[in-house]
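User: I'm putting together notes for a lab meeting next week and I want to include a structural view of one of the chains we've been expressing. I don't have a solved structure, so I'd like a prediction I can at least talk through. The sequence is below, exactly as it appears in our construct file.
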Amino acid sequence: MKNYGTENTPNIPRRDYMGFGKIFLLNMALLITMAYLANILYKYVLVKIPGKINYILSVLWFIFAGWICMKFGFQLKGDVIFDLRLVPLIIAAIVYAKPMVVMIISFGIGLSRLTFGISEAAIAGMLNFVILGILCAFMITWMNKRQFKQSTRGIVTILALNVINVFNIAIFGVIPFEQYILTIMPSTLPITLLFSCMFALILLDFQLDQRRTLELLRTNEVMTRQTEELRQAKLSLEERARQLAQASQYKSEFLANMSHELRTPLNSIINLAEIISENEEEHEDETQEKDTPNYGNIIYRSGRELLQLINDILDLSKVEAGRLEVIQEEVVLAEVVQLMELQFEHDAEQKGIEFEVTVMPELPYTIQSDVQRLCQILRNLLSNAFKFTHQGRVDLMIHKDSSARSTPGEWIVFSVADTGIGIPRDKHEAIFEMFRQADGSISRKYGGTGLGLPISKDLARLMGGFIQVDSREGAGSIFHLYLPLIQNEIKEDISDEENEAPEGAD
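Assistant: Thanks for the context. Below is the predicted structure for the 506-residue chain, given as structure tokens.
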């Protein structure tokens, strides 16, 4: 095809071609600067703008980049301009997957050539980019069908567009064919290929940075959302915990108050039932039938059991509410021993088992403790021992120990041993939980609420001690109550006190 304006194009001095490298380098610097500015704008401004507007702005950016390259391009004699306007088109063909968008960018760069004046060179430049745009559209469609990798798309696009651009300039340009091929193309084509590859690598780094930025933004959004959800969950849990604590406090206060209110009339019922029971025993011979039930005795026993249950609930509520006080006072060990013997000798006779209390001679005459809570713990331990023992014996032994829990100081130990049904080793901790027994069938067979041992454990803790259990299923049990041994100034052997006690006290 004939070159436009060839006859009007003068010979170009060879020294002018030396400026291609400098001008192309300037174009490259401008493109890198624009890419950097675009990255900054995207990070801090455009990322907050809707996606469609960003898309349109990116298309306009590519067209403007081509116009900037022409503005600072190498101008030969006349209106002929050599520059890197092809680079923005190459990058657009690599970035965008839609052929129509690349065609719009190519047509836009071609039309922007006319802003520098309408001439044969300007029309040839516009026609060149129209052809390149159509070629890019077909090439993108073909590569999309083949599903080329990003690197392959880049190499094919760079080579194809640079070669087609050379042929278009050689055929449609105003510079003579031979002069362009032999003089200009050997300088411009290598530089254009080099800068196209360099800018493609810069674009790749920009895309990776952009991708990392987007991932960080998404991760930050997810973490922010999760943090807010955790904060709300924490507030909800704290509020729920506060409500539960308040409800527990109200429950404990209610139980404490109700237990006191129930004990007053119940004590009256027990006292009256005891009087009726004693009266029935005195007139047992006068009854019409010998097998008539002793109703007073039944009412008395039932009342005592109910009173014990109320006392347990009262102690439990006091422990939970933090209102249970331990009063340290002088405790005579002999009196505690006599009280336990008097209370459980009758139970031992009824069940036909032996009951013996052993006090080691090295014990002091008195100790400092809470006698009421000490007797309550011992009653709970001995009651369980008699309840679960059908034959054999129950023993209470009181002695000293200086190696408990590797804690310095001496301890007084109250050991309650029995030959009863025993406790499996895996249930040793469960029996100290409230409303728990070693087996569900035990509650049905032996009765009880499962409060005795938990209350005893809490009482021992408040008194500065603890309870240990040593038991195997079918081999009996031994419960050890450890209390710190706090002695008074007056120390006498407890055996002397037993010798002075009246007969029948043991």
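A couple of points you could mention at the meeting. The beta strands are 74-75, 81-82, 329-332, 354-359, 366-369, 393-401, 411-418, 466-471, 477-484. The chain has a mean pLDDT of 77.

User: Perfect, that's what I needed.
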